[in-house]
Amino acid sequence: MDLFHNLALGFGVAVTPINLVYAFVGCILGTLIGVLPGIGPVATIAMLLPATYALPPVSALIMLAGIYYGAQYGGSTTAILVNLPGESSSVVTTIDGYQMARKGRAGPALAAAGLGSFFAGCVGTLILAAFAPPLTELAFKFGPAEYFSLMVLGLIGAVVLASGSLLKAIAMIVLGLLLGLVGTDVNSGVARFSFDIPELTDGIGFVVVAMGVFGYGEIISNLSVDPEDREVFTAKVQGLFPTKDDFKLMLPAVMRGTALGSVLGVLPGGGALLAAFAAYTLEKKTKLRPGEVPFGQGNIRGVAAPESANNAGAQTSFIPLLTLGIPPNAVMALMVGAMTIHNIQPGPQVMTSNPELFWGLIASMWIGNLMLVILNLPLIGMWIKLLSVPYRYLFPAIVLFCAIGVYSTNNNTFDVWMVALFGFIGYLFVKLGCEPAPLLLGFILGPMMEENLRRALLLSRGDWSVLVTRPLSGGLLAASLLLLVIVLLPAVKSKREEAFVEE
Amino acid sequence: MNIKSQKDFFSGVMFMIVGGAFGWGSYSSYSVGTGARMGPGYFPLLLGVLLAVLGVAVLLTSILAREEQADHEIGSFAWRPLFFILLANLSFGVCLGGLPAIGIQPLGLIIGIFALTIISSYADMHEFSFKGNLILALILSVGSYLAFIVLLQLQIPVWPTFITG
Known about the structure:
The complex is a heterodimer of chains A (503) and B (165). Chain A is an all-alpha fold and 503 residues long. Chain A has 22 helices and 2 strands. In chain A, strands 1-2 form a two-stranded antiparallel sheet. In chain A, β1 (183-184) and β2 form a beta hairpin. The longest helix of chain A has 35 residues, at 106-140. In chain B, α1 (6-29) packs antiparallel against α2 (42-64). The longest helix of chain B has 24 residues, at 6-29. Chains A and B meet through α8, α9, α17, α18 and α19 of A and α1, α2, α3, α4 and α5 of B.
């Protein structure tokens, strides 16, 4: 069997003491930056890139990969504990994870995220090893029209996440798309909506929007109510680990999340992020068991599924990088940079010209996942203790971490002024009952959508019908229309409102 | 005409204004182009118009709804937390970067942390302890110094420039 031979080769490379140490350092650093809101893996990898010049190429890539999925684990921790998505892909985890924490079930939520991620990571690694070549064929079939339609589907899926009115959720997506367009237009070089402020020509940072709208907006609205009815953790902490019932609910959710994540992760353009949203949407469509907590109020499936999906997606997003040389996201783009520093040209030839690097990296991913579970499960107790800190001491600390995180992404005070503005906007959203999660997704996808629409219409000479006449693209658009209709159907609509209204 | 949901009414107004502003801005300042040759204004104009239309729809539902929704009022703004949280954030930025325009030198991370902690603690309308917050600022200073400066080696000025030069 080729697969086993290859994996054996990979483990032979990865399980050398020196590479184990680099994987471990990467995981710890990744967890750390994931937990500290604001400092994302992109910034960290960028900072550490020069430090890897001196390392052998395999060790350098193993460490950088460790940072990447370590950050995925760490990001979900803050999402659950303080409602701050440390990573764009853990935005969904905040919805049910934070509610679980408020009800004293932060322990099971963290364990579900950790175990789900580990399972997904194992499967993702196997898939990466087995299906890398055939899966890239699928990615080849995706032209700009398909990408555009896929993003439309992703955005419509995100609408189901909002608890309020559908119209408002769609409007928030569009608002997010518009905010994402601020900055230099890649095609013409024109700085759009920058008001002649040099910092704005680079666009508004994701960190700035996330910290302002989620972090500051939430803190301000929390402080405005009496301490007695504050939305913080009043309930007693019950148990650190999921109960037997929890496991029964988690298991199928983890399976579904993993499957979705593995498939969507292959697609360039924020696969892990789309996977998390799609997995949550799918869980919400399945029927609740009798006695199960509704979604949006702390359902363990709402944590397990997206977390497995984003980890599986993070794993399989290496496929386009390793086989096609196409970076699917910013972190992967930096990995391409790291490879070229070491004189390795990313692309199909890596598998044949540097087999020990290709399979060593894949094997080290599994080892890294194992390390992360071992590292994170004992830490759960420590994270829980954090919740017993009174809110009046917790909130200045959160404000501080947001401010430092925002400042350090660009070493620029301009971002600190911007986050204040978005803090105000975030509070305004709370007051107007507008959900910020769809806005954030739109914000990330805005530039990508414009680029793909532009390419699609350029190829079709301005003919919009290309979006529906190409079978894959048309199918994706039909699926989004179907999704919209399903949500609008009277029966589902009342169910959806019911699920969110009852407290 | 009476408004059934204040929240929806003003959300609609907000979407209309923002969408209109984006649409008008992209139409007047950038070349729009055609579908096959999109200018920088094409996509934002499209989205701006869409947002304004959605805003009108949200506004209409707030007026045409049959009954009043529960929890539809916006209520009063919490100016105090809003003011102090944002002020804390801004003063932290001033401490890190200084304000060259009016000749304020950067004061560094440590002073910034104390300023941020003390100012933001005024945002809490119900509980307040100056001593407790001083201790918190001290803990956060030591922790941030170790995590961000020693471990992650972020390029942040730690001490005031008039000391370090």
